[in-house]
UniProtKB/TrEMBL annotation:
Organism per entry: Catellatospora methionotrophica
Enzymatic class: transferase
Transmembrane domains' residue ranges: 12-35, 70-90, 110-130
UniProt KW keywords: ATP-binding, Kinase, Membrane, Nucleotide-binding, Phosphoprotein, Transferase, Transmembrane, Transmembrane helix, Two-component regulatory system
Catalysed reactions, semicolon-separated: ATP + protein L-histidine = ADP + protein N-phospho-L-histidine
Protein name in UniProt: histidine kinase
Length: 396
């Protein structure tokens, strides 16, 4: 991209230089033809006159490269041609083309100074002309020099605006690219959180139930079969949720023909199923609702489900056989979720609880979810026993 931009800039510079050369050569040829056809009361053209025409007009081809120097040269040659008696109109082209370049490429102060110098040369020519009217000379001076200065100044302002617009366009393009990159990173983080929650929850249930099935396989076949059924159910649900997550990575916005319908993201409405699974897995779980239930926005709905799922998964992993309570509190402009467990009946589970109290990946992930939706999440030991997670989300 940089090489193409450099090449395009060089081509534009060459094109501009070619145009300037063409204009300077054309002006010089016009001056030569005018000197050959009409002179009036001025000195007849000779080799010196033609040389002065070339000197006063042709260098204007390089006026963009050194505008002040070229203007000085052309104006000097024009003044010299007037002083030796040649018609002043023959050598005006180079001076005015260079004056335009000075007004375009240099500061306002330099442009005004150059315009004043060119005006003095015009007045000098009027003083030498026979039967000239000074008011007419002054009017022509103001008109021609003023128009040239104004055209160059307007062109400079236009180029400045164009450069500013180009810079703004590039800045906006860069900001758009940065936003797109941030969106990709945020989407990856979100998908990683989803995968963590799905895998951690279902694998924890499967691990506990597999251990139980192996332990009681010979002594308590019904319990073993129940554990295997729980493993099968969790495996199927994990597969469905993983399919939903992977579908987000597809490039097409709609499912292809023949694809099964994508399961919706779980929310508060499926907390009952989650509670039932936890009971089957060995954690006595109760779901309570305080206040009048109301529909939640999709983001808050999914956030609530994942936080409850992660919290109950931690109870299953760290507290052993325990009792957990999930409470949903609907209040004015605030939605609070509390997940509290009693720490389990066995004291050996407490070291695991201590490990959970440290900010691990799961707790950090829950806090990040809450922060995305403007909420807060606190997690820690209870004074009496057990562990608690409190999620507070603002309601629209």
């Amino acid at each position: 991209m940089s090489a193409l931009s450099t090449l395009a800039g060089r081509l534009a510079t060459c094109r501009t230089l070619l145009l300037d050369i063409t204009l300077a050569v054309g002006s010089t040829m016009v001056a030569v033809l005018l000197g050959h056809e009409y002179l009036g009361d001025w000195r007849s053209m000779d080799a010196t006159g033609y040389l002065l025409i070339v000197a006063a007009n042709l260098p204007a081809a390089f006026r963009r490269q050194a505008p002040v120097a070229i203007l000085t040269w052309c104006a000097g040659a024009w003044t010299l041609s007037i002083a030796v008696g040649y018609w002043p109109a023959l050598n005006t082209y180079g001076t005015f083309l260079s004056l335009y370049a000075v007004a375009l490429l240099r500061s306002r102060r330099v442009a005004l100074t150059a315009t004043g110098c060119a005006a003095l040369i015009w007045v000098f020519a009027g003083l030498l002309a026979a039967n000239s009217s000074m008011p007419s000379v002054l009017a022509q001076t103001v008109l021609f020099n003023g128009i040239t200065w104004q055209m160059g100044t307007s062109a400079r302002k236009l180029e400045q605006r164009n450069r500013q617009l180009a810079q703004l366009t590039e800045q906006l393009r860069q900001e758009q690219a940065d936003r797109a990159q941030r969106a990709v990173v945020e989407e990856r983080i979100r998908i990683a959180q989803e995968l963590h929650d799905i895998v951690a929850h279902h694998m924890s249930v499967i691990s506990v139930q597999a251990g139980m099935a192996g332990y009681v396989f010979d002594s308590d076949r019904p319990t073993a079969r129940t554990a295997l059924a729980v493993i099968a159910d969790n495996s199927r649900e994990a597969q469905e949720e993983l399919r939903r997550i992977l579908s987000l990575l597809r490039t097409s916005a709609t499912p292809a023909d023949g694809d099964p319908a994508r399961p919706p993201a779980p929310g508060v409405g499926r907390l009952g199923e989650l509670v039932d699974r936890m009971r089957t897995a060995g954690v006595h779980t109760e779901l309570r609702v305080d206040g009048k239930p109301q529909p939640l926005p999709p983001g808050l709905d999914a956030c609530t489900y994942r936080v409850v799922q992660e919290s109950l998964t931690n109870v299953l992993k760290h507290a052993g056989p325990a009792t957990a309570t999930v409470t949903l509190e609907y209040a004015h402009q605030r939605f609070t979720v509390r997940v509290i467990d009693d720490g389990g009946a066995a004291r050996p589970a407490e070291p695991a609880l201590a490990a959970l109290a440290q900010p691990g990946h799961g707790v950090l992930g829950m806090r990040e979810r809450a922060r995305v939706y403007g909420g807060t999440l606190t997690a820690g030991h209870r004074d009496e026993a057990g562990f608690q997670v409190i999620l507070v989300l603002p309601l629209p």
